[in-house]
Amino acid sequence: MDKKINFTSKELLNKRFSNTPRGYDPLEVDKVLDKIIEDYETYENIPSGIDTEKVAKELEELRKANAELKEELEKERNKWKYISKDRKDIHIDNYELLQRIGKLEMIIYEKLNMNPEEIR
């Protein structure tokens, strides 16, 4: 339902028109009636036979699923909150890992009696 409803039932009940010497202003009444007709057209376009209980249950299930997903998201955020945003600590760790890998490669080359320069 994309259209906005112009009047609520309470607004219609309390609607007052300005008085003219011969009664109410016909243009004002016509404008209000046109808006009421728009509301009826909007209501007529609403699909009939909606099972409100089923919709209410589905809505409740979606709310629960949404709450669970929010909780999961918060847990994931908490897992990663200690990693700095500038990621300097990650780069240092990666650099250290590369140094260690290089040292391990050298040990392997020595044990296999290989020269790493010959492999390249």
Identify the notable features of this structure and list them briefly.
120 residues; 3 domains; single chain; mainly alpha
Distance between the termini: 68 Å
| H-E order | HEEHHHH
Strand content: under 5%
Number of H/I helices: 5
The gyration radius over C-alpha positions equals 36 Å
Summarize the structure.
With 120 residues, the chain is mostly helical. It has helices spanning 9-13, 26-44, 52-80, 88-111, 116-119, and strands at residues 19-20, 23-24.
Question: How is this structure best described in words?
Answer:
The protein is mainly alpha-helical. The chain has 3 domains: 9-44, no CATH class; 51-82; 84-120. Helices cover 68% and strands 3% of the residues. It has helices at residues 9-13, 26-44, 52-80, 88-111, 116-119, and strands at residues 19-20, 23-24. The mean pLDDT is 81.
